[in-house]
Amino acid sequence: MDRMILNGMRFFGYHGVIPEENKLGQQYIVDVELKLDLTQAEKTDDLAHTVNYAETHALVKFIVEGPPFKLIEALAGHIASRLLDAYTSVNEVTVRVIKPHPPFDIHFDGVTVELCRKRDDYEQQAPAE
To answer: What is the residue range of the signal peptide feature (predicted)?
Structure first.
Protein backbone atom coordinates (compact mmCIF):
# COMPACT_ATOMS: atom_id res chain seq x y z
CA MET A 1 0.00 0.00 0.00
CA ASP A 2 1.25 3.46 -0.87
CA ARG A 3 1.58 6.21 1.71
CA MET A 4 1.20 9.97 1.79
CA ILE A 5 2.81 11.54 4.84
CA LEU A 6 2.37 15.08 6.13
CA ASN A 7 5.04 15.68 8.76
CA GLY A 8 5.51 18.44 11.29
CA MET A 9 2.33 20.43 10.75
CA ARG A 10 2.35 23.12 13.46
CA PHE A 11 -0.77 24.68 14.88
CA PHE A 12 -1.79 26.69 17.93
CA GLY A 13 -4.58 25.19 19.99
CA TYR A 14 -6.23 25.30 23.40
CA HIS A 15 -6.45 21.62 24.33
CA GLY A 16 -5.83 20.21 27.78
CA VAL A 17 -7.25 19.25 31.13
CA ILE A 18 -5.74 22.16 33.02
CA PRO A 19 -7.82 25.39 32.68
CA GLU A 20 -4.71 27.46 31.92
CA GLU A 21 -4.11 25.33 28.82
CA ASN A 22 -7.56 26.27 27.58
CA LYS A 23 -6.88 29.97 28.21
CA LEU A 24 -3.27 30.35 27.11
CA GLY A 25 -3.05 27.66 24.46
CA GLN A 26 0.12 26.22 23.02
CA GLN A 27 1.70 24.81 19.91
CA TYR A 28 0.85 21.31 18.69
CA ILE A 29 2.70 19.32 16.07
CA VAL A 30 0.71 16.86 13.99
CA ASP A 31 1.93 14.15 11.63
CA VAL A 32 -0.51 12.31 9.39
CA GLU A 33 0.14 9.18 7.37
CA LEU A 34 -2.48 8.12 4.83
CA LYS A 35 -2.37 4.68 3.23
CA LEU A 36 -3.99 4.51 -0.17
CA ASP A 37 -3.43 3.25 -3.70
CA LEU A 38 -1.61 5.94 -5.68
CA THR A 39 -1.23 3.90 -8.89
CA GLN A 40 -3.72 5.97 -10.91
CA ALA A 41 -2.22 9.26 -9.71
CA GLU A 42 1.19 8.03 -10.79
CA LYS A 43 -0.07 6.95 -14.21
CA THR A 44 -2.32 9.93 -14.97
CA ASP A 45 -0.57 12.79 -13.17
CA ASP A 46 -4.08 13.90 -12.18
CA LEU A 47 -4.96 15.35 -8.76
CA ALA A 48 -8.37 13.67 -8.97
CA HIS A 49 -6.66 10.31 -8.35
CA THR A 50 -4.98 11.22 -5.09
CA VAL A 51 -5.57 13.13 -1.88
CA ASN A 52 -4.97 16.86 -2.06
CA TYR A 53 -2.48 17.44 0.74
CA ALA A 54 -3.30 21.17 0.91
CA GLU A 55 -6.92 20.25 1.71
CA THR A 56 -5.71 17.65 4.22
CA HIS A 57 -3.57 20.29 5.93
CA ALA A 58 -6.52 22.70 6.02
CA LEU A 59 -8.79 20.05 7.59
CA VAL A 60 -6.25 19.19 10.29
CA LYS A 61 -5.66 22.90 10.97
CA PHE A 62 -9.42 23.48 11.32
CA ILE A 63 -9.66 20.70 13.90
CA VAL A 64 -6.56 21.56 15.94
CA GLU A 65 -7.34 25.28 15.98
CA GLY A 66 -11.03 24.64 16.68
CA PRO A 67 -12.92 23.78 19.86
CA PRO A 68 -10.66 22.31 22.54
CA PHE A 69 -10.40 18.69 23.60
CA LYS A 70 -9.27 17.73 27.08
CA LEU A 71 -7.11 14.87 25.82
CA ILE A 72 -4.76 14.76 22.84
CA GLU A 73 -6.01 11.19 22.39
CA ALA A 74 -9.46 12.62 21.60
CA LEU A 75 -7.93 15.25 19.31
CA ALA A 76 -5.98 12.59 17.39
CA GLY A 77 -9.04 10.35 17.16
CA HIS A 78 -11.18 13.18 15.80
CA ILE A 79 -8.55 13.98 13.16
CA ALA A 80 -8.41 10.31 12.12
CA SER A 81 -12.20 10.02 11.88
CA ARG A 82 -12.57 13.20 9.86
CA LEU A 83 -9.85 12.13 7.43
CA LEU A 84 -11.50 8.75 6.87
CA ASP A 85 -14.82 10.53 6.33
CA ALA A 86 -13.32 13.01 3.88
CA TYR A 87 -11.27 10.60 1.77
CA THR A 88 -12.89 7.30 0.87
CA SER A 89 -9.76 6.29 -1.05
CA VAL A 90 -7.78 6.20 2.20
CA ASN A 91 -7.62 2.68 3.66
CA GLU A 92 -5.74 3.53 6.82
CA VAL A 93 -4.68 6.66 8.66
CA THR A 94 -2.09 7.18 11.37
CA VAL A 95 -2.24 10.42 13.33
CA ARG A 96 0.51 11.56 15.66
CA VAL A 97 -0.19 14.55 17.91
CA ILE A 98 2.76 16.00 19.77
CA LYS A 99 2.34 18.37 22.68
CA PRO A 100 5.89 19.70 22.94
CA HIS A 101 5.46 21.73 26.12
CA PRO A 102 3.05 20.10 28.55
CA PRO A 103 2.49 22.22 31.65
CA PHE A 104 4.47 20.09 34.06
CA ASP A 105 7.47 20.92 36.18
CA ILE A 106 9.58 18.28 34.43
CA HIS A 107 11.96 18.43 31.50
CA PHE A 108 11.40 16.32 28.43
CA ASP A 109 10.71 16.76 24.73
CA GLY A 110 6.95 16.59 25.06
CA VAL A 111 4.32 13.91 24.90
CA THR A 112 3.12 12.15 21.77
CA VAL A 113 -0.03 10.18 21.08
CA GLU A 114 -0.17 8.05 17.95
CA LEU A 115 -3.39 6.43 16.72
CA CYS A 116 -3.84 4.14 13.74
CA ARG A 117 -7.32 3.63 12.31
CA LYS A 118 -8.27 1.32 9.43
CA ARG A 119 -11.25 1.96 7.20
CA ASP A 120 -12.69 -1.54 7.75
CA ASP A 121 -12.59 -1.13 11.53
CA TYR A 122 -13.89 2.42 11.30
CA GLU A 123 -16.86 1.49 9.11
CA GLN A 124 -17.80 -1.37 11.45
CA GLN A 125 -17.92 1.06 14.38
CA ALA A 126 -19.90 3.75 12.55
CA PRO A 127 -23.54 3.98 13.70
CA ALA A 128 -26.12 2.76 11.22
CA GLU A 129 -28.18 5.51 9.61
So the answer is: none
Give the model confidence (pLDDT) of 12-70 as tens digits. 999 999 998 999 999 999 999 999 999 999 999 999 999 999 999 999 999 999 999 99
Give Dmax (Cα) for the chain.
Answer: 53
How many domains does the chain divide into?
A: 1
Closest Cα partner for 102 from 32, 28, 30, 31?
A: 28
Q: Are 32 and 5 in contact (CB under 8 A)?
A: yes
> Considering only CA atoms, which of 87, 38, 80, 46 is closest in space to residue 63?
80
Query: Which is catalytic among the residues 23, 43, 70, 99?
Result: 99
Residues with Cβ within 8 Å of residue 39, at least 6 apart in sequence: 2
Is residue 99 part of the annotated active site? The answer reads: yes
